[in-house]
Design goal:
The complex is a heterodimer of chains A (about 120) and B (about 120).
Chain A: E1 4-7, E2 10-13, E3 19-25, E4 31-37, E5 44-50, E6 53-56, E7 64-67, E8 73-78, E9 87-94, E10 105-106, E11 110-114
Chain B: E1 3-5, E2 10-14, E3 19-21, E4 24-26, E5 32-39, E6 46-52, E7 60-61, E8 64-69, E9 74-79, E10 88-96, E11 103-105, E12 109-114
Parallel strand pairs in B: 2-12
Antiparallel strand pairs in B: 1-4, 3-9, 5-6, 5-10, 7-8, 8-9, 10-11, 10-12
The chains are: A mainly beta (about 120), B mainly beta (about 120).
Chain lengths: ~120, ~120
Amino acid sequence: DAMVIQNPRYQVTQFGKPVTLSCSQTLNHNVMYWYQQKSSQAPKLLFHYYDKDFNNEADTPDNFQSRRPNTSFCFLDIRSPGLGDAAMYLCATSRGSGALDTEAFFGQGTRLTVV
Amino acid sequence: AQKITQTQPGMFVQEKEAVTLDCTYDTSDPSYGLFWYKQPSSGEMIFLIYQGSYDQQNATEGRYSLNFQKARKSANLVISASQLGDSAMYFCAMSRMDSSYKLIFGSGTRLLVRP
């Protein structure tokens, strides 16, 4: 019954080696979000899509890129991971169709380790 | 610009007692949504309750209620009859209700329920 699925749950990557995290949804939601969450901190919004419209946060490093090839899938690419990029990465979706319809549904996250 | 502030990094509450978690926000948008999420140690984000900026009544969901004071820009979460399973991180979040549907989080409050 999982509605927002993130793969993999745990990812270990080497310093500087490109890595891609994936997120898929079965909710047909318009909006998909990527957050970075470090230990005991709040989720930090990296970017989000409304349909195909990409919204980047001003303080998101260029090292982080995203793709949304269709409604169901969204990818987070880290071009050259550094030790400081080790974190939990959360994907979320929301319907984005009306004022009362903005609850975000979260995946279980991908915990990224950089070695 | 939007901003969410949670001033209580940690809170203790005795089992079966009520507890209030504080949240203040800042926005110039007339339409917005306010949310509370629970994040247990497992890392998943669990939606608890929602309040729309135009809602006249405070939201309630079971043991959770949201004390919405629009003029003071506060949206405090009240948990009644605390249970041991309520021990977790609690995040207040705010969403714009324009075409961007941007969703940002406060810094969180760690709640520990004592037996």
